Amino acid sequence: MPHDRTLLYAGHEFTVEHLRSHAKEEPGWSGPYALESRRIIFPVGRTMLDLRWGGSTWQVDGLTAMHLADAMVYQLRPATHATRRSLVVSRHRPSRADDAAPAFCLLSPRSLYRVHAAQHRLRAGDGGTVAIASLVDELGTSRRQSPLTGAVARARRLLAETADRDTRLSLHELADSVSRSPFHLARSFRHETGLSLHQYRQHLRLASAMERLADGDADLAGIAHDLGFCSQSHLGAVFRREVGVTLGEARRVLAGSSKSGNSSARI
Question: How high is the pLDDT of residue 24?
């Protein structure tokens, strides 16, 4: 997967870059990647991919932060042709022994908003490093995801693919699609992810809203309609409850965060 990198910050403790990953024409497993230093990768876009390390595979969506270890060798497989965007924090100090394996954590909407806001501040040259360091430290205490297999993995992929459509799968339709009963799927999903099916879909929709605000979309009513909310006020109420700020404040804070005066390098 070719990448465009934009350097946002370079300091003694860590470096922060914005990364745009471009899927190949025929999505499949990439060649092996080898890391020189550990990285924490925060999502700032919605697209899904799979990551394979050793004999395990993880699903990485628009809510998943990844902590990748020193000298880790892994492969990626994009789920779609869409460009994936991430905020990459490279740590310069040696890893601890318990950092030898990758870690994957689902971010709450509040934490995801903090990622977007920190990226905006870094692009504007107005700080943001304290927020990034806090988010990195927070991952150390977050619930870690196990490799997903079977019905839960299939359900999670379907939800990620349909979360930002105004016509969504019902629980019964989703359960039928993965050949499970609604009760069994709901129980297994919560056990493996820590979220209910409704919470997971709601968080994905809020991630979509944040991405559009960060891209400069000021049409709040249009965002609400496109994401399947019954009105702008409905989206606003959910957004404020889950994110902790109003839609208007988020639009003001994130406006222009997709612009950058920094140069990018293609690798």
Answer: 63
Higher pLDDT, 80 or 236: 236
User: Which residues have C-beta within 8 Å of that of residue 224, sequence separation ≥ 6?
Assistant: 231, 232, 234, 235, 236
CB 189 within 8 A of CB 200: yes
Where along the chain do its domains lie?
Answer: 3-147, 150-254
Q: Is residue 89 over pLDDT 50? A: yes
Residues 228-260 pLDDT 10s? 899 999 999 999 999 999 999 999 999 854 444
Q: Is the CATH number of domain 150-254 3.10.580.10? A: no
DSSP-derived pairing of the beta strands 73-78 and 49-53:
antiparallel
* pLDDT reported for residue 23: 66
pTM comes to: 0.89
Apex 216 CA angle, 215 and 219, nearest 5 = 120
Q: What superfamily in CATH does domain 3-147 come from?
A: Jelly Rolls (2.60.120.10)
Number of helices (H), then strands (E), in the chain: 9, 11
The DSSP letter of residue 172 is H
CB-based contact 115:47 (threshold 8 Å): no
